[in-house]
Amino acid sequence: MAGIDRDTPIPSEIKLHQKSRRLELSYESGEHFMLDFEYLRVFTPSAEARGHAPGQETLQTGKRNVEIERIEPVGTYALRFIFSDHHDSGLYSWDLLYNLGKHHEELWQDYLKQIEAQGLSRDIDTSSRPTGGSCGQHH
Questions:
Q1: In DSSP terms, which residues pair with 35 in a beta bridge?
Q2: In this structure, are residues 87 and 93 in contact, taking their beta carbons and an 8 Å threshold?
Q3: Do 16 and 71 meet the contact criterion of CB atoms below 8 Å apart?
Q4: Coarse DSSP helix, strand, coil percentages of the chain, rounded to the nearest 5 percent
Q5: How far apart are CA 115 and CA 59, in angstroms?
Q6: 1-10, 30-39, 53-62, 126-135, range with the lowest pLDDT
Q7: pLDDT above 50: residue 107
Q8: What is the CA radius of gyration of the chain?
Q9: DSSP-derived pairing of the beta strands 78-83 and 91-93
Q10: Percentage of the chain modeled with pLDDT above 70
């Protein structure tokens, strides 16, 4: 399962900064990442956004002002973020969080290019929301 490899860095400290809308991750190695709530929401690992197969992804838009209302641990391998737009189905494994931090700049720039190329906005949510979820689960 993703996030439980013995080589996966696990944060030694996790802080939620509501005013700046950032999640702070610190690691024993000295690495330190500040991830915007919008960035975390846009890169949700949920099946609703990522799909069940390549090509089924839904570009997440209109998340600029999203908040993380709370964080829930999932076993010893992941976190679940409860977002202000009621999204809560993505499990952010330790390896995913580390990779989102490590590759922040390139992932974010790629996202910005995608929304610009499609004429979409960080302020207007145009993500389609299936009713009932296509995998039989509530998303």
A1: 23
A2: no
A3: yes
A4: 25, 20, 55
A5: 8
A6: 126-135
A7: yes
A8: 15
A9: antiparallel
A10: 86
DSSP labels, 31-86:
-EEEEEHHHHHHT---HHHH-SSTT------S-TT--EEEEEEETTTEEEEEETTS
- 40: burial class by Cβ within 10 Å (0-12, 13-18, 19+)? buried
DSSP-derived pairing of the beta strands 32-36 and 22-26: antiparallel
Q: Which domains does the chain have, with CATH numbers?
A: 13-117 (3.30.2020.30)
Band the pLDDT of 51: cuts 50, 70, 90.
low
Amino acid at 117: A
Sheet with 78-83: list strands edge to edge. Answer: 68-74, 78-83, 91-93
| Distant-in-sequence, close-in-space partners of 41: CB < 8 Å, separation ≥ 6 | 60, 63, 66, 81, 83, 85, 87
Whole-prediction pTM: 0.84
Dist CA 109 CA 51 (whole Å): 22
